[in-house]
Amino acid sequence: MKKLLSLVLTLVMVAGLFSCASKPTASISSGEVAAVDAGATSEKPKPGEEVAKGTEDPMYVASDTEEGFVPADMVGAEETVDPESVPEGMHVVVDHGGNRVNVPNKIERIVVTDIFPVPAVLSVFFNSASKIVGIAPTSMSAAKNSLLSQIYPEILDAKTDFMNGNVINVEELMKLNPDVVFYSENNNEQKEVLNNAGFCAIGISANGWKYNCIETLNNWLQTLTEVFMYSDDIQILTERSSKATKKSNETYDMIQEKINTIAAEDRKKVLFLFQYNDSSIITSGKNFFGQWWADASGCINVAKELEKDNAVPTNLEQIYAWDPEMIFITNFTTALPADLYENKIGSYNWSEVKAVKDKEVYKMPLGMYRTYTPGIDTPITLLWFAKTAYPEVFADVDLIKETREYYKDIFGVDLTDDQIKSIYNPDINAGRTYFN
């Protein structure tokens, strides 16, 4: 009886091992998200199967590491994983949703869905985009019109037709045969679709660190280090991550020291135009990246009274009441300062807003990606922000020199004068996203 029981247990373990190593198959007949049975489950574990699910709304706690805030389920997570439960050729990674995911040790094909800055982060920190086989159209529009495609032209080979907005075409995604798929951690519908289809899906958070661009990037890099820990290129990632983190922290500290000399009544009142077209004005309230940029550069976000998470609609009447001294336009819209100065878009009349009257409207830089979000350009964007808001306080900062040295020292990239100029005079086509 004991021998029989032992044989049964052995067969169960072997079956589980081989099924975990299988790739997703085209057993899902329809490619659209709406056609996927969200309640369907498989009896066999899949490569990206969650070993243990975390909560849908994970709490974040301070860890003992230098990286800062990490998801609660990630703190000490490696101590709770039973090595014998991990399939051969895989390792466990805890993503930003607290999900423990079986990840292949060898990763050759990468897809990034709706966490748009990550393709640029992967390309730069691995010094190659050759393994990225699929990205969202919103990521591609930025890549085509930024430094990313100039320095890593292979990014243009990535497919985009597996996505329509936030909707994934499962059949098209299966054709890409990805080893790992990165998605936005707060997109529960997409998470469910990816897991049900058998993909190794890893959630990456954009708001888990209160939209702090430096903390967010640092934690993205920490998770990428865990995902690619067996990669031949892991040393490039870790070295560049360390240098970038150090530079970000040094830049932030220097700016804080300078802006601490600015009296409260002299702080600039700023407004962010995240999206702007003939039918809507979208800004950043208290809980979006705009608030962090304002705080970090010593400015006052006039829309901070708006507490809704992420982008928030507003109207021109409210903007007149706020009367911002400066307006910053992101690269998630094709709008330019001239569109406000000359009232070119829709029936809006900006002529009585102080920032427009004083010609203090600025388009945010575009480096490897749209700089409003976390990314490799965060340190130089922070310098640009502070110097633009307070040119006299930061008169000693040579932005061109700082940009050139940053790319060279951290990433080994020698930017030309024209490339540096393009960062601070972005192509409006980068603003053509599915949001428009």
Describe the structure.
Helix 7 (213-227) packs antiparallel against helix 8. Residues 1-23 and 25-80 have low confidence and may be disordered. The protein is built from 15 helices and 18 strands. It has 2 domains: 19-247, Nitrogenase molybdenum iron protein domain (Rossmann fold, 3-Layer(aba) Sandwich); 260-431, 3-Layer(aba) Sandwich (Rossmann fold). 46% of the residues are buried. The strands form 6 sheets. Strands 7-6-10-11 form a 4-stranded parallel β-sheet, sandwiched between helices. The protein is globular and about 65 Å long. With 436 residues, it is an alpha/beta fold.
- Rg, please? 23 Å
CATH architecture type of the largest domain: 3-Layer(aba) Sandwich
Overall geometry = globular
Number of strands: 18
SS element count, helices: 15
Order of the strands making up the biggest sheet: 7-6-10-11
Q: Average pLDDT across residues?
A: 84
Task: Tell me the major beta sheet.
Answer: 4 strands, parallel
Low-confidence stretches: 1-23, 25-80
Topology summary:
Elements: H1 2-20, E1 50-52, E2 60-62, E3 69-71, E4 90-94, E5 100-104, E6 110-112, H2 118-126, E7 132-134, H3 137-144, H4 147-151, E8 163-164, E9 167-168, H5 170-175, E10 180-184, H6 188-196, E11 201-204, H7 213-227, H8 234-259, E12 269-273, E13 275-277, E14 280-284, H9 289-296, E15 300-301, E16 311-314, H10 316-322, E17 326-329, H11 337-341, H12 354-357, E18 361-363, H13 378-389, H14 399-411, H15 417-424
Parallel strand pairs: 6-7, 6-10, 10-11, 12-15, 12-17, 17-18
Antiparallel strand pairs: 1-5, 2-3, 4-5, 8-9, 13-14, 14-16
